[in-house]
Amino acid sequence: MSRITAPVLDLKALKDTGEFEGYGSTFGGEPDAYGDVIAPGAYTASLAAHQAKGTMPKLFWQHDADQPIGKWVGAREDGHGLLMQGKLNMDVQRGREAHALLKAGDIDGLSIGYRIREYSVDTDSGVWTLEKLDLVEVSIVSVGANENAVVQSVKAAKAAHDLTEKLRAGDRLTEREFETWLKGLGFSNSQAERAARVHLKGQGEPADAADDGLAFLRALRA
Fold it and tell me: pTM for the full model?
């Protein structure tokens, strides 16, 4: 499952020749805008794999693979987060633009693209703790709000898959899980909440109601 983070504005150094250093993500603390907490050590295996292959994550502009703007020359974890060292390509226009915007403080910083390998979810709070990640790319971004829909849709799809497997195994869904399941299947928040009230309240056990909800979903799609 591929994901991107909200941007982290924590630039540590920027030179006129294009070298810069900053944190791509930080560990622990309060969940970010998407409900995620990245655990210390989440990048350890991925960084070791990159080192073994002699590779580095890509440096893109706005997560656009068609717009590389330089390269990452160093990446390591410390007590604060993932510290990245990069060099912008000052021979390309977008690299020079990124440098000027970073220098002026006009853009939001760095945002990471990664694949989740191991995670846990607090079912009460909905917070995801990301425990093992494959680091694919780290972009310089101007506005991170447009990533919210992408991240949330990926989360919902993954959650729906897990909950479908739970149903197939004969387990029961809670009201909240039933809502999450419907959202992952394409229902809006209000539709999922309304369906949960209709199909779980006063209609027996959640597992039975989930079967009824599946029939309801099939009828809607028909």
Answer: 0.60
